[in-house]
Amino acid sequence: MISRIEENDLGFTSLWSNAKKMECGTLFLNTLFTDDLFFNKLSDVSCISEQMIDESIKYFQKEHLLPCVYSVNYKELENLLERKGFVHHDTLHVLKRNTGENRKISAIKINTDTVSLWTDIFCRAYDCLEWGPDVTKAVENSLQCADYFIDESKSSCVALYEKNDILGLYCLGTVTDRRNSGLASLLVDFASNEVKSRSLECLILETYGRDNLLKFYSKLGFEQVYEKKVYTI
Prior knowledge:
alpha+beta, eight-stranded mixed beta sheet
Protein backbone atom coordinates (compact mmCIF):
# COMPACT_ATOMS: atom_id res chain seq x y z
CA MET A 1 0.00 0.00 0.00
CA ILE A 2 2.75 2.47 0.93
CA SER A 3 4.62 2.02 -2.34
CA ARG A 4 1.42 2.50 -4.35
CA ILE A 5 0.55 5.66 -2.45
CA GLU A 6 4.08 6.99 -2.91
CA GLU A 7 3.81 6.43 -6.66
CA ASN A 8 0.54 8.39 -6.64
CA ASP A 9 2.25 11.26 -4.81
CA LEU A 10 5.25 11.22 -7.17
CA GLY A 11 2.96 11.09 -10.18
CA PHE A 12 1.03 14.18 -9.16
CA THR A 13 4.15 16.06 -8.10
CA SER A 14 5.69 15.44 -11.53
CA LEU A 15 2.75 17.26 -13.14
CA TRP A 16 3.73 20.49 -11.40
CA SER A 17 7.50 20.04 -11.00
CA ASN A 18 10.44 18.90 -13.07
CA ALA A 19 11.49 15.40 -12.01
CA LYS A 20 15.10 14.24 -12.15
CA LYS A 21 16.09 10.64 -11.39
CA MET A 22 18.96 10.45 -8.97
CA GLU A 23 21.08 7.48 -7.90
CA CYS A 24 18.30 6.06 -5.73
CA GLY A 25 15.65 8.75 -5.46
CA THR A 26 13.73 11.38 -7.40
CA LEU A 27 14.49 15.09 -7.21
CA PHE A 28 11.61 17.48 -7.88
CA LEU A 29 12.28 21.12 -8.64
CA ASN A 30 9.92 23.97 -9.43
CA THR A 31 11.73 27.28 -9.38
CA LEU A 32 8.45 29.15 -9.75
CA PHE A 33 7.18 27.92 -6.37
CA THR A 34 10.34 28.70 -4.41
CA ASP A 35 8.91 28.38 -0.89
CA ASP A 36 6.93 25.18 -1.43
CA LEU A 37 8.37 22.04 0.16
CA PHE A 38 5.89 19.74 -1.58
CA PHE A 39 6.90 20.65 -5.12
CA ASN A 40 10.60 21.02 -4.30
CA LYS A 41 12.00 17.88 -2.67
CA LEU A 42 14.20 14.82 -2.88
CA SER A 43 11.83 11.91 -2.40
CA ASP A 44 11.49 8.16 -2.96
CA VAL A 45 14.97 7.58 -1.48
CA SER A 46 15.82 3.87 -1.41
CA CYS A 47 19.52 3.77 -0.48
CA ILE A 48 22.08 5.55 1.66
CA SER A 49 24.18 7.69 -0.65
CA GLU A 50 26.06 10.71 0.62
CA GLN A 51 27.00 11.53 -2.96
CA MET A 52 23.33 11.74 -3.97
CA ILE A 53 22.56 14.02 -1.03
CA ASP A 54 25.48 16.28 -1.94
CA GLU A 55 24.40 16.42 -5.60
CA SER A 56 20.82 17.20 -4.59
CA ILE A 57 21.97 20.04 -2.35
CA LYS A 58 23.89 21.52 -5.28
CA TYR A 59 20.80 21.36 -7.52
CA PHE A 60 18.70 23.06 -4.85
CA GLN A 61 21.28 25.76 -4.22
CA LYS A 62 21.82 26.39 -7.93
CA GLU A 63 18.13 27.23 -8.24
CA HIS A 64 18.10 29.19 -4.95
CA LEU A 65 15.78 26.64 -3.34
CA LEU A 66 15.77 25.30 0.20
CA PRO A 67 17.21 21.75 0.23
CA CYS A 68 14.45 19.38 1.31
CA VAL A 69 14.47 15.59 1.71
CA TYR A 70 11.58 13.27 2.62
CA SER A 71 12.11 10.11 4.63
CA VAL A 72 9.61 7.26 4.89
CA ASN A 73 10.57 5.44 8.09
CA TYR A 74 14.23 5.33 6.99
CA LYS A 75 16.34 5.91 10.10
CA GLU A 76 19.67 5.42 8.35
CA LEU A 77 18.76 8.17 5.86
CA GLU A 78 17.68 10.47 8.69
CA ASN A 79 20.98 9.89 10.48
CA LEU A 80 22.88 10.76 7.30
CA LEU A 81 20.83 13.92 6.79
CA GLU A 82 21.50 15.06 10.34
CA ARG A 83 25.23 14.53 9.82
CA LYS A 84 24.97 16.71 6.71
CA GLY A 85 23.35 19.53 8.67
CA PHE A 86 19.69 18.84 7.98
CA VAL A 87 17.05 19.24 10.70
CA HIS A 88 13.60 17.72 11.08
CA HIS A 89 11.36 20.50 9.74
CA ASP A 90 7.92 18.89 9.69
CA THR A 91 6.03 15.60 9.35
CA LEU A 92 3.74 14.82 6.42
CA HIS A 93 0.90 12.54 7.50
CA VAL A 94 -0.49 10.24 4.82
CA LEU A 95 -4.17 9.44 5.35
CA LYS A 96 -6.72 7.27 3.60
CA ARG A 97 -10.50 7.11 3.51
CA ASN A 98 -12.28 4.01 2.32
CA THR A 99 -15.40 4.24 0.22
CA GLY A 100 -18.71 4.42 2.01
CA GLU A 101 -22.03 6.16 1.95
CA ASN A 102 -21.55 9.90 1.37
CA ARG A 103 -23.71 12.85 0.55
CA LYS A 104 -24.48 13.30 -3.12
CA ILE A 105 -22.35 16.30 -3.95
CA SER A 106 -21.98 18.20 -7.19
CA ALA A 107 -18.82 20.02 -8.18
CA ILE A 108 -17.71 22.03 -11.19
CA LYS A 109 -15.05 20.37 -13.31
CA ILE A 110 -12.40 22.69 -14.69
CA ASN A 111 -11.66 22.78 -18.41
CA THR A 112 -9.38 24.89 -20.59
CA ASP A 113 -11.86 27.79 -20.47
CA THR A 114 -12.15 27.88 -16.68
CA VAL A 115 -8.59 27.25 -15.48
CA SER A 116 -8.25 30.86 -14.34
CA LEU A 117 -11.18 30.35 -11.96
CA TRP A 118 -9.47 27.39 -10.25
CA THR A 119 -6.23 29.38 -10.11
CA ASP A 120 -7.91 32.34 -8.45
CA ILE A 121 -9.47 30.17 -5.72
CA PHE A 122 -6.23 28.22 -5.15
CA CYS A 123 -4.07 31.33 -4.88
CA ARG A 124 -6.47 33.08 -2.52
CA ALA A 125 -6.81 29.94 -0.39
CA TYR A 126 -3.05 29.48 -0.10
CA ASP A 127 -2.23 33.21 0.03
CA CYS A 128 0.03 33.04 -3.01
CA LEU A 129 -1.46 35.50 -5.48
CA GLU A 130 1.97 36.06 -7.01
CA TRP A 131 1.92 32.43 -8.22
CA GLY A 132 -1.17 33.02 -10.36
CA PRO A 133 0.31 32.80 -13.89
CA ASP A 134 2.48 29.82 -12.97
CA VAL A 135 -0.38 27.92 -11.32
CA THR A 136 -2.49 28.52 -14.42
CA LYS A 137 0.28 27.09 -16.59
CA ALA A 138 0.69 24.03 -14.34
CA VAL A 139 -3.04 23.29 -14.43
CA GLU A 140 -3.32 23.83 -18.17
CA ASN A 141 -0.41 21.47 -18.80
CA SER A 142 -1.88 18.72 -16.60
CA LEU A 143 -5.59 18.77 -17.48
CA GLN A 144 -5.23 15.50 -19.40
CA CYS A 145 -3.65 13.73 -16.42
CA ALA A 146 -5.48 15.12 -13.38
CA ASP A 147 -8.97 16.42 -12.67
CA TYR A 148 -9.49 19.84 -11.13
CA PHE A 149 -12.74 20.84 -9.42
CA ILE A 150 -14.29 23.72 -7.52
CA ASP A 151 -17.38 23.71 -5.34
CA GLU A 152 -20.63 25.23 -6.60
CA SER A 153 -20.14 28.42 -4.58
CA LYS A 154 -16.77 28.88 -6.30
CA SER A 155 -14.94 29.21 -3.00
CA SER A 156 -13.06 25.89 -2.64
CA CYS A 157 -10.80 23.93 -4.98
CA VAL A 158 -9.29 20.47 -5.22
CA ALA A 159 -7.15 18.38 -7.58
CA LEU A 160 -7.73 14.64 -8.02
CA TYR A 161 -5.10 12.28 -9.41
CA GLU A 162 -5.76 8.62 -10.13
CA LYS A 163 -3.00 6.01 -10.10
CA ASN A 164 -2.55 2.47 -8.75
CA ASP A 165 -6.26 2.05 -8.01
CA ILE A 166 -5.96 5.01 -5.63
CA LEU A 167 -7.43 8.50 -5.96
CA GLY A 168 -5.10 11.14 -4.57
CA LEU A 169 -6.63 14.34 -3.24
CA TYR A 170 -4.32 17.35 -3.57
CA CYS A 171 -4.47 21.15 -3.37
CA LEU A 172 -7.60 21.23 -1.22
CA GLY A 173 -8.25 24.81 -0.18
CA THR A 174 -10.95 27.36 0.65
CA VAL A 175 -10.74 31.13 0.32
CA THR A 176 -10.29 32.87 3.66
CA ASP A 177 -13.73 34.44 4.07
CA ARG A 178 -15.55 31.15 3.39
CA ARG A 179 -13.59 28.87 5.72
CA ASN A 180 -15.30 26.91 8.51
CA SER A 181 -18.46 26.64 6.44
CA GLY A 182 -18.11 22.99 5.39
CA LEU A 183 -17.03 23.62 1.80
CA ALA A 184 -13.80 21.60 2.01
CA SER A 185 -15.66 18.64 3.53
CA LEU A 186 -18.12 18.80 0.64
CA LEU A 187 -15.29 18.41 -1.85
CA VAL A 188 -13.88 15.54 0.22
CA ASP A 189 -17.25 13.79 0.00
CA PHE A 190 -17.33 14.53 -3.72
CA ALA A 191 -13.89 12.93 -4.08
CA SER A 192 -15.03 9.89 -2.09
CA ASN A 193 -17.97 9.51 -4.44
CA GLU A 194 -15.53 9.62 -7.34
CA VAL A 195 -13.60 6.73 -5.75
CA LYS A 196 -16.78 4.69 -5.67
CA SER A 197 -17.95 5.61 -9.16
CA ARG A 198 -14.52 4.78 -10.62
CA SER A 199 -14.37 1.48 -8.67
CA LEU A 200 -11.11 2.47 -6.98
CA GLU A 201 -9.76 1.20 -3.67
CA CYS A 202 -9.54 4.35 -1.56
CA LEU A 203 -9.04 8.10 -1.32
CA ILE A 204 -5.75 9.39 0.04
CA LEU A 205 -4.48 12.78 1.10
CA GLU A 206 -1.42 14.20 2.82
CA THR A 207 -1.32 16.90 5.47
CA TYR A 208 1.59 18.56 7.23
CA GLY A 209 1.73 18.40 11.01
CA ARG A 210 2.25 22.16 11.24
CA ASP A 211 -1.14 22.74 9.62
CA ASN A 212 -2.90 21.10 12.60
CA LEU A 213 -5.58 19.43 10.46
CA LEU A 214 -5.32 15.83 11.68
CA LYS A 215 -8.41 16.11 13.90
CA PHE A 216 -10.38 17.71 11.08
CA TYR A 217 -9.58 14.89 8.68
CA SER A 218 -10.17 12.26 11.35
CA LYS A 219 -13.72 13.58 11.77
CA LEU A 220 -14.17 13.13 8.02
CA GLY A 221 -13.28 9.44 8.29
CA PHE A 222 -9.60 9.47 7.39
CA GLU A 223 -7.10 7.14 9.05
CA GLN A 224 -3.33 7.47 9.02
CA VAL A 225 -1.47 4.93 6.90
CA TYR A 226 2.08 6.20 7.49
CA GLU A 227 4.05 9.40 7.81
CA LYS A 228 7.02 11.05 6.15
CA LYS A 229 9.59 13.15 7.93
CA VAL A 230 10.58 16.35 6.12
CA TYR A 231 14.20 17.43 6.53
CA THR A 232 15.60 20.81 5.50
CA ILE A 233 18.81 22.77 5.98
